[in-house]
Amino acid sequence: MSTSLRPVQHLVNGVPTSDGAGVKLTRVLTQHLQRRLDPFLMLDAFGSDQPDDYIAGFPDHPHRGFETITYMIAGRMLHRDSAGHEGLLENGGVQWMTAGRGVIHSEIPQQEEGVMEGFQLWLNLPAEAKMCDPWYRDFKAAELPHTTLDNGVEVIVIAGESHGVTGAVQRPTTEPLYLDVHLPAGAAFEQAVGADHNAFVYVYRGEVDVAGTLVASQRMAVLRNEPGQDLVRIEAREQPARVLLIAGRPLDEPIVQYGPFVMNSNEQIHQAIQDYRSGHLA
Ligand code: FE2
Predict the structure, then answer these.
(1) Is the pLDDT of residue 111 over 90?
(2) What local confidence, expressed as pLDDT, does residue 78 receive?
(3) What is the pLDDT confidence band of residue 112, given thresholds at 50, 70 and 90?
(4) Contact 208, 183 (CB under 8 A)
(5) How far is 46 from 41, CA to CA, in rounded Å?
(6) Distance 19 CA to ligand 1 centre (A)
(7) Could you tell me the distance, in angstroms and rounded to a whole number, from the CA of residue 42 to the centre of ligand 1?
(8) CA dist 242 → 11, 174, 267 (Å)
(9) Average pLDDT for residues 146-159, to the nearest whole number?
């Protein structure tokens, strides 16, 4: 079998910022990487034990044209939306929300102390699905498909498929793969990812070696797309490590973002703003 490792193209430091009502976070996948990492639009990492950094949460705000996937490593957050969904997201849980033609929601911490840590990923919708009905699902940690490999590597399969385990969510067009991989010290993990799918690794504990490149904690490694290089290999070093491996098939469609709206044209953005102002978004 002639398969070779997908090397790291470049490393990315996140950009510290704040969003919502002053939640401090690191924007790992920023707007200028949207084309490079199509179909992914954003990845935010939040993590703090200082309540002032998170307590105000994200009061009511709209979305249109894409999906948000929130993965809570530690903490408790209550979600409510205009489609009538309500859910408590806590330790190890995932909330997958398809905004489609429009959702107005709030995401409010349900804790006044302790650590709040997690990620929010934005996955684009294909042009023909941007105005679909909103969809929402909460997965508690115990409900997430997972497996432990012979070498002790634990894989939580949020989307896609890994080592025979089908993930919690599948999407036909973008075929997202979203894995949380926990590696014991010295252990390696391999995953086939088609070279035509954009892929990146984000390290949130320890440090790893990705096909010969050292990737430190809180760094994102963007992987190259070369034909024949379709095996991702991640190896922990002297310490255990935890990483997200995220990949998907690019849409190759125009991306026009205005804040919480991501569409294909300026006209569609103007329509979203008008719909929101006139109370017709959701
Ligand atoms: Fe939101």
Answers:
(1) no
(2) 95
(3) confident
(4) yes
(5) 17
(6) 10
(7) 12
(8) 17, 25, 42
(9) 98
Q: Which phi and psi angles does 276 have, rounded to 5°? A: -65, -45
The pair of structure tokens assigned to 217 is 């904690």
**CA gap 224, 9 in Å, rounded:** 5
pLDDT for 2: 57
218 or 112: which leads in pLDDT: 218
Cα(228) to centroid(ligand 1), Å: 38
Tell how far the Cα of 56 is from the centroid of ligand 1, in angstroms.
Answer: 14
Q: Round to whole Å and give the CA distance between 166 and 161.
A: 5
> What's the gap in Å between 98 CA and the centre of ligand 1?
11
Domain boundaries, the chain: 4-277
Alpha carbon of 252 to ligand 1 centroid (Å): 24
The Cβ-side half-sphere exposure at 177, using a 13 Å CA radius, reads 25
Q: What is the mean pLDDT of residues 68-74?
A: 96
184 close to 240: Cβ distance less than 8 angstroms: yes
With 90 as the cut, is the pLDDT of residue 214 above it? yes
Report the distance separating Cα 30 and Cα 122, nearest Å.
11
CATH architecture of the domain covering 4-277:
Sandwich (2.60)
Spatial distance between the Cα atoms of 11 and 257, rounded to a whole number of angstroms: 24
Count of C-beta atoms within a 10 Å radius of residue 278: 8
Q: Report CA(240)–ligand 1 centroid distance (Å).
A: 32
| Pairing, β 58-63 against β 86-90 | unpaired
Residues with Cβ within 8 Å of residue 84, at least 6 apart in sequence: none
Ligand 1 center from residue 51 Cα (angstroms): 20
Query: Mean pLDDT over residues 206-230, rounded?
Result: 97
Quote the ligand 1 centre to 205 CA distance (angstroms). 26
* Gap between the Cα atoms of 136 and 119, Å rounded: 17
pTM of model > 0.90: yes
